[in-house]
Amino acid sequence: MGTHAIPPSHRRGRRGRALRPARPDVIRSAAQQPAGTTRAAAVAAPLPGAYISPWGDAQVAIGDETLAWMEREGITLEAISPFVMDAGGRGFSMPIGSTAGDGLDSKGRIFYPGGLRIQHRASGKSITLQSTFIRVMPAPAYSAGVSIDGERFREEVVIAESTYVEVMAGARPSPTGFRIKKAPFYVTQEAADLFAAATGATAPRAGSLFGTLTPNFDYVPGAATPPSFPTFP
Prior knowledge:
The protein is an alpha+beta fold. Helix content is about 20%, strand content about 40%. It contains six helices and 15 strands. The chain has helices at about 10, 25-30, 35-40, 65-75, 165-170, 190-200; strands at about 45-50, 55-60, 75-80, 85, 90-95, 105, 110, 115-120, 125-135, 140-150, 150-160, 170-175, 175-180, 185, 210-220. The strands form two sheets. Strands 2, 3, 4, 5, 7, 8, 9, 10, 11, 12, 13, 14 and 15 form a 13-stranded antiparallel beta sheet that branches. Mean pLDDT is about 75; it is low at about 1-45, about 45-50 and about 220-233.
């Protein structure tokens, strides 16, 4: 995923800062874009020579502050297959997919089929996050297409972000590839603004821990054939 860190001002400065007032123009401006503008943004060609893994899965453990916010705001989180919610509702798992052969696309993304649906009880709003991507570059991030009440809002929004230093701190080899353990991802201001504008409710705190990501990448880069034995935890 790289070796250089994002400057602290890129993310760290937002943690603990008061959330900016919701911007109602966030949704309105997207609706005014020419038809096809956002949809085209989601189509990306393969990135020649860039390869991660054709198989594997990832586990997300939702952060305590995010869980507390969900409970306070009356939010229900649902998994869209093949995502699967954990029995206790404190996380979810997702398989790795590929829209660009066996590698990253030209935007530096790994594709995960499935997604999440956020149900906000007080407003009755439904926010769907699908398609799902983990961005490898220009910086580690969790992004997704966003629909509100079944209407496509934007083809890709960065929901949470991390740094190369924090992601690579948990990188370890495994018998069939490699694993990254509990990489932290933090709520972006963009995601917080979007939620507040869509629901009129209190958004998650920008810079708070959305959750940790533990991906298992099976079939290491450059291997000629897939290994025949499973990844150990």
